[in-house]
Amino acid sequence: MSGPGQRASAWEAQLTGFLTLFYKEFLRFWKVSFQTVAAPVLTALLYLLIFGHVLDEHVTVHGVRYTSFLIPGLVMMQVLQNAFANSSSSLIQAKITGSIVFVLLPPISYGAFFLAYVLAAMVRGLLVGVGVLLATVWFAELRVEAPLWILAFSLFGGALFGALGMIAGIWSEKFDQLAAFQNFLIMPLTMLSGVFYSIYTLPSFWQGLSHYNPVFYLIDGFRYGFFGVSDMAPQYSLAVVVACFAAVAALTLNLLKRGWKLRA
């Protein structure tokens, strides 16, 4: 029988393993932050300058100038894409180089493994998001009506796409497969989610289809935190996002527990 001391020791070992793996994943992107943080900020800034210059004087959405409307969408888009990129690229690189064995050999539970990768993905996504916000806020008036909604959608968005990135990294056996996952799933989901428009400017068929896109709810709820207006009620949007994260997290944990495509 295991006593309290043994249980405490096992818990400390799991905590140490989690912190070590999280620190590794954090350093992995932070040491090349010019590429992993600064470059996405520049990309978002270019989107804003181009679309804002062309449309700002001609388009308003929910009574908000187009440039102001666009900024929260760009922030959330970069949070999601970079959270996905962090966990997916880490796993595929570890599998291809064979270094994944050094992560699997220590007695780290699959739950701690999951949390370390997802948390590191969230940190990268949020750092990029803050960078985009700081770089773009000078170009338009941007108020903050509900900061807790901004925080909630940021955290769950990063967590959802960090977990999706783990699934992509586990499933992919080469970079081509990971690129296909990103180009044919992640990119369409983010670009067709209302980043650049309100879905109610679309024909009815595409409006209905947009409601099956979880990224729409992330963008819409996040934007609500700034302007206090949205296409859907933020409570409903958050419920959809939390349900999606729970489903994706359960699938990811199941794959980790089975060691699918991770253990030879």
Can I get a quick summary?
The chain has 264 residues and is mostly helical.
Query: What does the overall shape look like?
Result: elongated
The rounded Rg comes to 20 Å
Distance between the termini: 33 Å
Average of pLDDT: 91
Q: Return residue spans where pLDDT drops below 50 for at least 5 consecutive residues.
A: none
By helix and strand content, what is the structural category? mainly alpha
| Largest sheet: spatial strand order | 1-2
Task: Bin the strand percentage.
Answer: under 5%
Main sheet overview: 2 strands, antiparallel
Number of strands: 2
Which bin fits the share of residues in helices?
Answer: over 70%
Helix/strand order, N-terminal first? HHEEHHHHHHHH
How many structural domains does the protein architecture include? 1
- What count of helical segments does DSSP give? 10
Describe the protein's topology.
Layout: H1 4-30, H2 33-55, E1 60-61, E2 64-65, H3 66-97, H4 100-104, H5 110-136, H6 147-171, H7 175-191, H8 204-210, H9 214-227, H10 234-258
Antiparallel strand pairs: 1-2
Helix pairs in contact: 1-5, 2-3, 2-5, 3-5, 3-6, 3-7, 3-9, 5-6, 5-10, 6-9, 6-10, 9-10
